[in-house]
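Narrative progress, year one. The postdoctoral researcher (J.K.) led the effort to move from monomer predictions toward full complexes, under supervision of the PI. The following entry was the first complex the group processed end to end, covering 967 residues in total.
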Amino acid sequence: MSVELPQLTAKDFASDQEIRWCPRCGDYSILAQMKKVLPTLGIPKEKFVFVSGIGCSSRFPYYMDTYGVHGIHGRAPAIATGVKLAKPDMQVWVITGDGDALSIGGNHFLHCIRRNLDVKVILFNNQIYGLTKGQYSPTSPVGARTKSTPYGSVDRPINPLCVAIGAEATFAARAVDVDIKHLTMVLERAAHHKGTAFVEVYQDCNVFNSGAFNYASKKEEKDDNVVYLEHGKPLIFGKNRNRGIRINEMSRPEIVELGGDIREDDLLFHDEKAPEPSLAFLLARMRYPEFPEPLGVFRDVQRPTYDEGVMSQLEAAVAKQGSGNLDELYNDGDTWIVQ
Amino acid sequence: MATTETAAPESLNGKRTEQLETVVVRFCGDSGDGMQLAGTQFTNASAVFGNDVSTLPDFPAEIRAPAGSLAGVSGFQLCFSAHDIYTPGDTVDTLVAMNPAALKTNLSDLKRGGTLILNEDAFDRSNLSKAGYATNPLEDNSSLAGYRVHKVPMTRLTRDAVEGLGLSQREADRCRNFFALGLVYWLYERDSKPTLQWVKDKFGKNPAVAEANVRALNGGYNYGFSTESFTVHYQVPPAKLAPGKYRKITGNEALAYGLATVAKLSGTRVIYSGYPITPASDILHELSKLKHFGVVTFQAEDEIAAMSATVGAAFGGNLAVTASSGPGICLKGEAMGLGMITELPMIIVDVQRGGPSTGLPTKTEQSDLLLAMFGRNGESPLPILAAATPSDCFDLIQEAMRIAVDFMCPVIFLSDGYIANGAEPWQIPKVSDLKPVVVKHPSERNSAEHFLPYKRDERYVRPWALIGTKGLEHRVGGLEKADVTGNVEYSPTNHQHMTDIRFLKIAGIADYIPEQTVEGPESGELLVVSWGGTYGSVRTAVRQVQSEGKSVAHCHLRYMNPFPRNLGEILKNYEKVLVPELNRGQLRFLLRNDFLIDAKGLNKIQGKPFLVSEVAEAIRTFLENGSI
């Protein structure tokens, strides 16, 4: 007899808590798309857990009527590791930000990915510290004038996708907060991935860093500034879809105009299943304004997950040695009797 | 140690046998000389024979400091006895020194008239100079006067013993520790069987090495038997311990076994998250072998991750544990606070070592008590337990988990380097006598509309809802929360209320733990209050002074926060209170604060445990002069 799961809706995932993000914050859109995606997965509501760190984005779990942990700064991937190892049947989502994941929590971010723990990591990148009111973040561009860098930042920014792919993320993607359809697709893909699914979302902090991603989100600009990745398809972009990315003789990407000598077949074809991460890394290195920035799934490959490995060792130990016997354990080795 | 000579029957080869009550042996040499192994094997042999044993491994923080240097000396001391003992001994009866550096750094602990066994071959010019000897102490008449000195050419004899096995000289020399061990086995009539079995198990795949170690061991034994250098050997009869079956156990082993017991008997998985750190790493090593008991081990990327994963695993419904030493506990502080405010059950083990900072990684100290009490931001009280002996770790870690689960809170468990690495006989318990930790999760909502994660019982304990349970979806986090609902709440009165409740919950544990007991008179002139790993030395010292007819009692604490509910009453029954600690007076600070008593301290911060004589002398002086 099969039990029909009740069809859940976005509303079922809304908690009763008042949302305290600033009006028009990009976080609202990500929350809305998440609530749309979860009911489509065929997973009961009680099997989701959201884990976050500290920052504006990290308030996310309070607004989802699922299990949730609002953790401490930077540690969400580590908390999530504990959750997943304790309860591997839960679908675990990590919600983090650029400061949370890449500055204070860089180490956990890296190790979660290289272990391929089966969690989804959604990084809200707004290139600023919002909750602490406007200091530059590890993704802020050189020269960024913020509260803590009145003369402009001299730090070179870190590229979140390069870090994730460098740690050999089995799933790496990028989306933009207001590009609703695309964001939904990317979140869905992440939800279905087994292993660490890393998604960078360009998120507008309209209070402290307004318009940082206009080039990738504004209707009139974005067609020339982004290129949508599709597996097996050539990289074509532009309002008239007449420009493309080609790999030149120096093995570097270059922008070319289609027509004339250059045909679609000459372009770089996306392969998200490539076993080597080099292509994904090359794509992640393409930054505006030199290049259109790729959006979509950079990499989607399968590798054993950490939690599976841990659990199968447990099972193997029981299969080999039997369920632990305390008497045997205590009496192992040299013993003696006092009469 | 008190030793008594009894009748000396003629034994084989015309050598005398003397009976002794208690003997302290120390093996010392280069950190590559295998002294820890020799000591461990001697401990095993003595324990299996039925002596009471207590050990003190003492090794440098460097794995291999320059060969022959003073910094590279590694030692292993053990005391074995025909009666029950509580310490590895103050002074050494037999010192085995494998090189000049070992002699130089250890000779002062050898009692006058004690036996000194030296590897003569190692006393060459180079080693002598590295040890800072201008002349060879083996050749002058004064340096070693007053000791029974046995100069044994161990390197040469070991090489001879293993000749023909095709070993390199380096491999042959690595068997020297077994030669020395064999010689001391002869000296104290130890049975080689457990060691021979160990060699077989360890080197089974390498028969030449196994044979070499056997030959070296036998070579040492026969050297003692045959040569005229040794005219007497000793017997230490088995101890009259409580009847039962025993094994040897270290504190870290006992702790790991306790956790495996928790997992097995509760039917709930234990998840241990840790990051390698001396002297806690052995807990991770032990537990990683015990997966079939339902123990998951997670070697995290850092201490913070280990603690954070512990909080996550507790939210995930597992019995979560992390362990570290002082530097790691400092890093864990913020996540411990998260465990505290989310009110989830977990254990944080601190195997204390010499601090501050990196301090003395391989040496013992008791200087993290106040860190455990106060080392988090905000008002963040946590229960603290402290093990008294290696085997006590087995019982107390189970008690720690029981408190964590029953009261929904992180519990700090204090061990120390001395307990963690030290070994003693452990009376093997009957599994049926052990009390399981009982894990309960609600299956239904505790209110009509929502699950209320912070709705408490009469002891202020909140429910532990297992994630994945339908209808109990809820959020926890580090922000202050409203009582009952757990929703984020910043109001002033709520914060006061929640802070008070969190405090009262922990304070209420005093009603649950056993009352404090005292050894000695119920009232009198002096109460000696100790805690943690100093138990053995302080107990032995107090007994000595008691036997001199003095009015002194001993109170040893294992529950450090909250204190046992009758502790205040006990303290009032004595005119004076002395608190010996391996720190600057951390328990004393707490006692003075909580009970307004003028407690005095005996404080040693040398990376070493108390000698019995130090404590006994301090008690006598304090009784006489009112100060120490």
